[in-house]
Amino acid sequence: MNSRVRKLLGGYLLLIKPRIVMLVALTGLCAMVLEGSLLTEPPRFAMVLLGIVLAAGAANAFNQFFDRDIDAVMARTRDKRPIPNGSVLPRHALYFGTAVAITAVLLLKTSGGMLAAMLGCFAIFQYVVVYTLWLKRKTSLNVVIGGAAGASAPLIGWAAGAGNLALVPWLMFLVIFLWTPPHFWALALYAREEYALAGIPMLPVVAGEWTTRLHITCYVAVLLPVTAWLGFSAELGWIFLVGTTLAGFQLVRRVILLWRDKDHCAARALFRCSNLYLAAVFAFMLVHRW
């Protein structure tokens, strides 16, 4: 395989944002495992999980198509995203996103049922239309309302097995929904100048860093007890509760350091820690199940 083909394939892989998709896949996987119905049907299980992955990947591809002007301005994306760096043409990214989205919905419909397919459509619509095209460029509440898209994978996974929704998947949704704003506000704190240059009204840009730290603190303060609520409601056991409590202490520590140090290093560390926190919450669910 020559370097040109490798660059092209690598560009299409980057369109789906594989690291983000892996985290989304983990949350959907956990819901499917906890619900349990599809564990006895490995082919359906695999197809539903693939549908969740492709739905997230399609949303990310559409996001990069519509945000290509922003990505070309911001230093953190200019050389890493495939459209601004020339790896993938914009129209090809649009075609790719459309094909992946259709495939995702068809997989969810055939393997998970109508409710799972409708939730997959909702997630793509929420992320592309509500968040990317509407909220992101207009309001600092963009990641608050837009967070519903990234939080939808547990609903899809649960609905694919059960055919309905219950308290547990909604609590999983709520954990991700509450996690999303402080995660992205931490990113926005250390990339504030870039967002301002691109004209994106992230909270640190329009309200300042002190207000952003306060909002992060409030969301984390609500996130931790909701995570515990999920543990008790799903009867996840002491390993989950102890593990997520320790992860929560680390998250709180990073929030305290964010107030103390007030620099980009503290914000970047919180951003990374928040990723680890969410991964830990859902990984401990799998530890309990198996």
Description:
- By secondary structure, the chain is mainly α.
- It has 2 domains: 1-132, Orthogonal Bundle (Tetracycline Repressor, domain 2); 166-290, Four Helix Bundle (Hemerythrin (Met), subunit A).
- Helix content is 83%, strand content 0%.
- The protein has helices at 3-15, 18-35, 42-66, 68-73, 75-78, 90-112, 114-135, 142-150, 153-162, 167-190, 192-198, 203-207, 209-233, 237-261, 264-289.
- Helix 2 packs parallel to helix 15 (264-289), helix 6 (90-112) runs antiparallel to helix 7 (114-135) and helix 14 packs antiparallel against helix 15 (264-289).
- The longest helix is centred in the C-terminal third of the chain and has 26 residues, at 264-289.
- The mean pLDDT is 94.
Number of domains: 2
* First-residue to last-residue Cα separation: 40 Å
- Can you count the beta strands? 0
Note the run of SSEs as H and E. HHHHHHHHHHHHHHH
Arithmetic mean pLDDT:
94
The CATH class designation of the largest domain is: Mainly Alpha
Summed up:
This protein has helices spanning 3-15, 18-35, 42-66, 68-73, 75-78, 90-112, 114-135, 142-150, 153-162, 167-190, 192-198, 203-207, 209-233, 237-261, 264-289.
Keywords, separated by commas or semicolons:
15 helices; globular; Tetracycline Repressor, domain 2; Four Helix Bundle (Hemerythrin (Met), subunit A); 290 residues; mainly alpha
